[in-house]
Design a protein that fits this description.
This protein is mainly alpha-helical. 47% of the residues lie in helices and 10% in strands. The protein contains five helices and three strands, in the order βαααβααβ. It has a three-stranded antiparallel beta sheet.
């Protein structure tokens, strides 16, 4: 499962939320309208990705990152670091 890392401890997400006047709950609700299944992501997940301190998280699934970026109308790359391509091989 691909994990993306949030940039700058979530600051770009917080900045985008502020520009759009969105709270964490509003962003979570907006992701439901984008998600084909209508589930979106929880406000708790938004707070984990946008937050600071003890309960903040540094990584999330690609689906979560995409829903956040789409709901904020921001390029995914502005909010999250893309995984690098590895040329390393593992010996078996």
């Amino acid at each position: 499962m691909t994990q993306l890392l949030r940039k700058s401890d979530g600051r770009p997400i917080r900045d985008a939320m502020k520009r759009r006047g969105m709270s964490g709950a509003a962003l979570a609700e907006a992701t439901k309208g984008i998600d084909i299944a209508g589930r979106g992501i929880s406000a708790c997940t938004v707070h984990r990705m946008a937050g600071r301190g003890r309960y903040a998280g540094d990584s999330c699934r690609l689906r979560t990152a995409w829903l956040i970026a789409a709901a904020l109308d921001e390029p995914l790359q502005r909010l999250f670091d893309m995984p690098s391509v590895s040329t390393e091989t593992e010996e078996r």
